[in-house]
Amino acid sequence: MAVETHHGRGATRNSSPTRFNLAERTVDGDWLDSVEALDGVTPRRTTVTIERPKSILTRNSSPDIGFDRSINPYRGCEHGCIYCFARPSHAFHDLSPGVDFESRLFAKPEAAKLLHAALSRPGYEAKSIALGTNTDPYQPIEERFRITRSILELLLETRHPFTITTKSDRVLRDLDIISAAAKLGLAAVAISVTSLDPKVHRTLEPRAPAAKKRLAAIRALTDAGVPAIVAIAPVVPMITDHELESIIEAAVAHGARGGFYLPVRLPHEVAPLFRAWLDEHYPDRAAKVMATIRSLRGGRDNDPAFFSRMRGQGVWADLLATRFDKAAKRFGLAQARFNLRTDLFEPPAGDQLRLL
Fold first, then answer.
1. What pTM, to 2 d.p., does this model score?
2. What does the pLDDT average to over 302-314?
3. Which CATH architecture has domain 3-22+31-331?
């Protein structure tokens, strides 16, 4: 019997999705991918399930988030970032927030059609739509499904403002649409850069593009007239925090117009997965990393309170804020702002998407 390997994935294990009182999954032949064994080991293959939701706009009223609506073309993310705060959402589907989150993905191919219906409703008020708030809209399967592109086509057609957050240079494949929207004051892109160290990147974000590609994307976006923001998110104590100033310097050198940072968050199932990752890759400092995170989070692994969840609290949080402010001033990085126009919006005409 072949044994499945998690090599190349962010999570070191597949934890049981028990938070919603769902039955524990049994590892058997039906659950594993049907691939040929090689030396008794089968690599975990990514599968994609087509999801057909009834709506596509997700609303939020969080006072510490600068948008009230978002779109996520996919569930799960093959980038495999161990710290991803979206991992717990997979438990609701009877899937593990661990390796399942990285390899059992969901795609929403009718997203643009659903958005068309939402924008067509009488009384709809245009405000910026955020893409990439839960999982990356430019993860590898976007090459196949092109759902993000179909959404952007409609947003440009209707002159609707939008922001994109991604850690992938694949965003440049839609530069024609994004730059056209930016010229109208309708678009901005935040590129996440967490570490410049390839050794850290390989375990922290194993299937995401390297930092040099993300920085190059910032340059390309800026040269095309798109407001490009660097998101140093998350900052992981004792793992990446020492790179804060270097990332700011590199981002500015590549044309970033603004930036922000966020300390690592470990909600729900993310905390035990992160601890297991530390034990695997950084056993020499695992206890110190977690102690620092708890000091940032009021003595807990995670602080879900509005505002403090975004900045942390205590001496460590104050130090990060001071370092970021000083580095931003030194290198000329402005505070991230998304001031996009809403007055150009035109509801979709008819039942079908117009051709650009």
1. 0.87
2. 91
3. Alpha-Beta Horseshoe (3.80)
